[in-house]
Amino acid sequence: MNQVFMTGIGMLSPLGKDRQASFAAALSAHSAIRRAPEALSAGLPNVLMAPAAVEPESLLDSQDAGLDRATQFSLVAAQEAMADAGIDETPSDADRFGVFVGIGFGGAHTLDAMFARYYTALFGGEHSRKRATVVHPLSVPRMMANASMAAVSMRYGLRGMGNTYSVACASSAIAAGEALRAIRHGYLDAALVIGTEAMLTPGSMVAWNALRVMARPNADDPAASCRPFDRDRSGFVLGEGAAALVLESRSRAERRGAVAHAELAGYGCTSDAHHLTAPSVDGQVAAMRQALDEARLAPDQIQYLNAHGTATDAGDVIETQSIVGVFGAASRQLAVSSTKAVHGHLIGAGGTLELALAVMAMESGSIPPTAHLEHPDPRCTLDYVPLQARHGCRIDAVMSNSFAFGGSNASLIARRMTG
Amino acid sequence: MLEQLIKKYLMTGAKVDPVKFDQPDLLVSDLGLDSLGLVEMLFEVEEHFGFQIADPMQFQNMRFQDMVAAIEAEVRAHNNGELPEIQMPDSSASPSQ
């Protein structure tokens, strides 16, 4: 059984163009949430979004211009993570190096643009109708869910086992967990794990709006509209972006003298088999316990938990009950925060983004707060690090939770590097 | 102009060396396009004229000039024998979305 180290982190998030900028904004509770422009709000009033801090195209070569936006985010995050890990060309053990991607809605931009163009032409005048069927020949390979895995594996020549996990909000947490298992059990020696999501399109906005889970704009300050664990919560805000992690077996990392951010030590994954969208305490508890068991840690050895914390009534209350169920008395010493208040819900990208932020909190000893938590919900009884970051903390292990529509629960644990 | 449209795409979008077009007997197979690349090239034409070219593979073993002539014939067949005016794009490398 191999130990697995995290030797590279990269991200392009609503909070910043890279990991340092993103983490700094999370610490200062600088929210990236804003009102959506009219072209995106699709006729809906009050649509909010958390767009990426910079356009991914501006950080890529012109040859990547036609790729789906989610694939562009993947390439940007991968670039930073690989550079951070000190891997600048195709590794000599590329057959043992895989790419694992988590994404919720593959190809949303490509699909939305193609359908918009097609139906507009089809239902237009006679001249336009005749042209309707002329569609870009790469539409399918651009929109396929595994487009990121294809682009990233080709970019770095990584030929090991790799897969794409589409498990809604738990997609990239599960991608990271499955990569951890692949290395732990010797199928691979290294993996580039990516969570990506780009679905800020009119077509997806109307669909999400219909589900009644989206936050209403805060009258005083739209940036403060997502309020996890607050009695004035009204739901989440869709974000976009990507985060990438380089995972390596301990022996591979040590052999090349890599400096690791953390050990990825535990992963738990369960299915509720209960409800299409409602969360369940039993499934969440089981996922967190599996992760603790694998990491061989007792609950009181975790100091910080980045919560799924979507700012929905059911989500916040159930997760709180689950954490209390797992941590018991230790939950009173546990710092819990939801950074979704500032970066929004990145769906498929959320798992890797939030795990990365938790690892950076462990490395720096600074815990990002739950922003806008001014009026705690009395049913939410934990220490949510309200409003202000906490500095100078000794953190030996962190947990990150990702709970998905469809009832999939994933929990990951990272440990501080010793010595 | 149809030839210019195709050449411009090949040079900017597909990064074909412009020097190649100095050869009068240039073959389509010398352009370095795989079958997907050939289809992408044809899309440049299709987008301009609003129809899908019937058989991309027919061009694979042609000379470049014969391919241009064959495409022109197909465009004319869709436009009552006329070749509609071509508006050259600023950059054919831009995404089509």
Automatic annotation (TrEMBL), chain A:
<keyword id="KW-0472">Membrane</keyword>
<dbReference type="InterPro" id="IPR000794">
    <property type="entry name" value="Beta-ketoacyl_synthase"/>
</dbReference>
<dbReference type="InterPro" id="IPR014031">
    <property type="entry name" value="Ketoacyl_synth_C"/>
</dbReference>
<dbReference type="InterPro" id="IPR016039">
    <property type="entry name" value="Thiolase-like"/>
</dbReference>
<comment type="similarity">
    <text>Belongs to the thiolase-like superfamily. Beta-ketoacyl-ACP synthases family.</text>
</comment>
<keyword id="KW-0997">Cell inner membrane</keyword>
<dbReference type="Pfam" id="PF02801">
    <property type="entry name" value="Ketoacyl-synt_C"/>
</dbReference>
<keyword id="KW-0812">Transmembrane</keyword>
<dbReference type="GO" id="GO:0004315">
    <property type="term" value="F:3-oxoacyl-[acyl-carrier-protein] synthase activity"/>
</dbReference>
<keyword id="KW-0536">Nodulation</keyword>
<keyword id="KW-0012">Acyltransferase</keyword>
<protein>
    <recommendedName>
        <fullName>Nodulation protein E</fullName>
    </recommendedName>
</protein>
<dbReference type="InterPro" id="IPR020841">
    <property type="entry name" value="PKS_Beta-ketoAc_synthase_dom"/>
</dbReference>
<keyword id="KW-1133">Transmembrane helix</keyword>
<dbReference type="Pfam" id="PF00109">
    <property type="entry name" value="ketoacyl-synt"/>
</dbReference>
<dbReference type="GO" id="GO:0006633">
    <property type="term" value="P:fatty acid biosynthetic process"/>
</dbReference>
<keyword id="KW-0808">Transferase</keyword>
<dbReference type="GO" id="GO:0005886">
    <property type="term" value="C:plasma membrane"/>
</dbReference>
<comment type="function">
    <text>Proposed to synthesize NOD factor fatty acyl chain. Involved in the synthesis of a highly unsaturated fatty acid moiety, which forms part of a lipo-oligosaccharide that is responsible for host specificity.</text>
</comment>
<feature type="domain" description="Ketosynthase family 3 (KS3)">
    <location>
        <begin position="1"/>
        <end position="416"/>
    </location>
</feature>
<dbReference type="InterPro" id="IPR014030">
    <property type="entry name" value="Ketoacyl_synth_N"/>
</dbReference>
<keyword id="KW-1003">Cell membrane</keyword>
UniProtKB/TrEMBL annotation, chain B:
<keyword id="KW-0596">Phosphopantetheine</keyword>
<dbReference type="InterPro" id="IPR009081">
    <property type="entry name" value="PP-bd_ACP"/>
</dbReference>
<dbReference type="Pfam" id="PF00550">
    <property type="entry name" value="PP-binding"/>
</dbReference>
<keyword id="KW-0597">Phosphoprotein</keyword>
<dbReference type="InterPro" id="IPR036736">
    <property type="entry name" value="ACP-like_sf"/>
</dbReference>
<protein>
    <submittedName>
        <fullName>Putative Acyl carrier protein</fullName>
    </submittedName>
</protein>
<dbReference type="InterPro" id="IPR006162">
    <property type="entry name" value="Ppantetheine_attach_site"/>
</dbReference>
<feature type="domain" description="Carrier">
    <location>
        <begin position="1"/>
        <end position="75"/>
    </location>
</feature>
